[in-house]
Amino acid sequence: MAARVIPYPALHASHGGIWIATAEGTRPIGRGEAIRIAADTPVILLNAPLVGQRLGYPELSGLDLLELFAFLYPARFAVPTPRGLARAVDLSPPDTDEGVAAFLREAAAALLAVTQGDWPEREGAWTAAQSLTRLRWPWGPALAPLLAKPQVNERWLFSTLPEWEEQAPRPAPLTVAIPPADAEARLADLTGHGAEERLGQRAFAAAATDAFAPRAMRDAPNLVLAEAGTGIGKTLGYLAPASLWAERAGGAVWISTYTKALQRQLSKETERLFPDPALRRQKVVTRKGRENYLCLLNLEDALQGGFAGRAAILAQLVARWAAYSADGDMVGGDLPGWLPTLFRRNGPTALTDRRGECVYAGCPHYRKCFIERAARASAEADVVIANHALVMVNAARGRETTTRPTRYVFDEGHHLFEAADSMFATALTGQETIELRRWILGPESGGRGRRRGLQARLSDVASYDEQGGIAIQDAIEASRHLASDGWLGRINEGAPFGPIEHLLAAVRGLTYARAEQPGDAGYGLETELAEPTPELIEAAAPAAAALDALVRPLVTLGRRLEAVLAEAPDWMDAPARARVEGAIASIGWRAETVAAWLSLLARVGGPVDPAHVDWLAVDRVEGREYDIGLHRHWLDPTRPFAEIVLKPAHGALVTSATLTGGGDWETAEARVGAPHLARAASRFEAKSPFDYPANAEVLIVTDVKRGDLPALANAYARLIVAAGGGTLGLFTAIRRLRGVHGRIADRLAREGLPLHAQHVDPIDTGTLVDIFRDDPHASLLGTDALRDGVDVPGSSLRLVVMEGVPWPKPSVLHAARRLAGGGSAYDDRIVRARLAQAFGRLIRRADDRGAFVMLSSAMPSRLLSAFPPGVGIARVTLDEAVARVQARLSLPTHIGHEAAPAMHHGDAG
Length: 909
Description:
Helices cover 45% and strands 13% of the residues. By secondary structure, the protein is an alpha/beta fold. It has a 7-stranded parallel β-sheet with strand order 8-9-7-10-15-6-16, sandwiched between helices. The protein has a 7-stranded parallel β-sheet with strand order 19-20-18-21-22-17-23, sandwiched between helices. A 4-stranded antiparallel β-sheet has the order 11-14-13-12. The radius of gyration is 28 Å and the shape is globular. The two termini are 42 Å apart.
């Protein structure tokens, strides 16, 4: 089928210039003319928000090829660059920036031609195109005429999705031990018997079997800590004993990660365990928190008029995706990470259940629900790939108790401390209280959408059970004392309404009084909850009374619902029972939250709790306040983690390449909760097989003055040019990242070196990593999220540049932990761990070569032990560093490597 002629012009804007392509040819144009053309004529674009940002015209819209790709190929991924799109539609990529505009017209023609051929995703397309055309989707007029009306009406999405089925409860796992030799034999099966034998991997698999041994006493799991350097192959090393135990014991092993990138990588590795896709879908399930999955009820509301404008177009494209998605995961699943960002802030979050408002069996789509399907599939699976947060939430909130795993593998185990720190924290803030108010009351002032209050969700129970109905009314009445819409404005004007807003006003006043510094940059403020003022103490009492009046009816309601379940009236069928059980869990979680707030308020003017750290904060970004409140964190968050997650388990393997990073085994044990268990953990260590001294070096640049932004930007530009791209630049402050990017992006573009940046480009982090991985000449600037968990092997990442020593950010919480953890030695351990993780991005396979550059003359020698033994470390001038980077990395044999193929990333962080 010949590609159709496209009548529209195509616009391409990069840091190297702006070009317009028409049937007559391509010409460079200025920013003003580009904006005029885009405003007057439909233009073909690739990633409209990014082009709009480069033109300084954020409202730019047009015929975005990424939206067309998402319509034609739902649940498929393409790297959102000219090169990535060329590969996805089987075209030759443009050689130059100037050639991109003409290529975009060619790509548009090729995409539209898909509709005329053998197209697997044709089902549902005609109906969706009609809806999108009515919504004035720019592609509608070009696309709709190409789609023939089907002879039989296409089925509505909600009738095409498969239903899950109830299963009998799974029996408890059998008591079995896995002999180390069996694990080694299974590993040989997984790697292939002709594969090069890796002794470290074999030893790892054997050591990991201890975590699957039968438990000897209650609350004392078999805990194995295993540090396996990069290149050991720890994933297959633990999949071998884990799969054997699941097979022989008839139980599920939950493998928990910290980053979505590793979840995807793990899912890929399980293809070796179960090569047959159908069997693999039964045996391996990926689980995430509820807020990651598409909510079908929210989608139905959006499709039926709940969304307007661009958000309504997004809803139609998401519906197209939902019909073809493997699991309905909108955050890191098979929904391209770039799709929601094309719609800026319009709607993506409203399509998931972020507020815990699920009505469970009360939902008409309950039997097709992606979340429920994943939960049921994981109950029958051998391997469940989860994340640290979900594991902790399930354990803490008593979810899925009948299918609670007895064996865990915690990969990326060095992140358990921070995951627990986040999970077991308490925040009594304006935003948190307004969310609770909305959950109880539902929409108050003409709010759109399907959100329902507590009364609407439980109306049948309230009418059946008088005491339950009274408790609902009491909770509704008490919730009116929480912060409400417009609370920030009222507090700023000195006119708070109600006890909670008065409390927040007192918090704000004291925080500004004690934390604001001269020359403050307008970012967040915090101060200890110590020596509170009389105003704060006076405000705390009525706030506590208001929260107490709220927690009581919530607890009562939970008990009444349990009684209703126990007595089981005639109308309570299985779906109604499931809905009540869901409501009990949801109400219990809220009641626990309010009880934690009360405990925090009791601290105001009261005794110090040595197990916790309490402080007041005003959250701001660039001078704009967005939240105010009181905060409480555990001094050691591994205490509740050990109590709630580890003690009920029978065995757990905690592994990472940098488990002892920055310290020793005692440090590693302290950061995963081992000291709080009765049985000592076993330790295993396998060093990386890579030749770091031959393949990498560390350069500390001594002549870039701290605080000199032009000098810092110049250093980054020269180093990136010397390496020919392939650079990951890490920053400790977003402001400096943006400042450097603004100074060097155009300069690098003139050298043919693309530059991408977190917090600058309107693209999600996972997609930025995909773009970086896909082009060996590209470079990426980012913050902490990119220091760890970014796996970019090959020539795409050959230089890591850090702007300075990554000292921990001074905060009330850090100060308390520093005091408890040994003062400056505690800081040093954190910095060494961060350096080890950043250096770990560099050498990901045996033939990688790289350099690590620190732009700080103040780098203390005592921290250099963070790097692998034997790696050359030199303090040099910037000129010397540039020369050495060029000599090491610009070798044709190295740069000529083909870039690693792009993996699909929704979010790498």
